Amino acid sequence: TIFQYLASQIIERLTPDKQELLLKTSVLSDIRVPLAARLSNLPHAGDILTALHAERYFTERREGANLSYRYHPLFREFLLHRAQQVLGPHDFRALQRNAAELLVHDGCVEDAVLLFQAAEDWEGLVPVILAQANGLIEAGRIQTLELWIRSIPESVRSQIPLLNFWLASTRMPFNPDEAYLVFEQVFQQFRACDDHAGTLMAWCGGVQSVLFGWVGIGRL
Questions:
Q1: What residues contact residue 86 under an 8 Å CB cut-off, 6+ apart?
Q2: Which ranges of 57-175 does DSSP label H, i.e. alpha helix?
Q3: What does the alpha-carbon distance between residue 183 and residue 161 come to, in Å, rounded to a whole number?
Q4: For residue 71, what are the β-bridge partners?
Q5: What pLDDT shows up at residue 8?
Q6: Residue 68 pairs with which residues in a beta bridge?
Q7: What angle do CA 171, 114, 46 make, to 5 degrees?
Q8: What does the DSSP 8-state code read for residue 123?
Q9: Most distant CA pair in the chain, distance
């Protein structure tokens, strides 16, 4: 009932460019004007967002270093639902992928990861994870990295040795035996494709896993 009300009383009364902006930016949790303009191909996206906020169209304005907007959660849910209906599954996933790529370019990696996952775009997600893996581990965000990697289906993950190398690295502090088994598999994969650097990395990871198992994390 609420969705029908929103459609009949709000969306259908807006101009086509406003409708287009709302639907395309619904995939963004935080809407910055430059990003909205690129995603929607509407140069006046900032003016539209300003008007939507001024006219109280469930749009919150956030001041700061980077001006941004957010839709009310219920309104955004409605917009996402409508965007899928209007665009169709294929074009909606393409919209998610495009938004994710723009977010990566702008340095909003975590938001991008969520969109890649939602679109099931593993080809786009894998290089993002690999680029962020070492930095996440150095920052102590091991579980975040593990969740990102495990979101990728096993059928895809098993074909990418470097991805499994990082997965083993996330398990080493918590379960050295499990990490060792994964490093062993990765070692064989790297060796089979003559990746000498990868083979050495996997060997070192296996050795570290054994050491963790012998002396414990605390004493290291």
A1: 23
A2: 73-105, 109-119, 122-138, 142-150, 154-157, 161-171
A3: 9
A4: 59
A5: 66
A6: 32, 62
A7: 150
A8: H
A9: 68
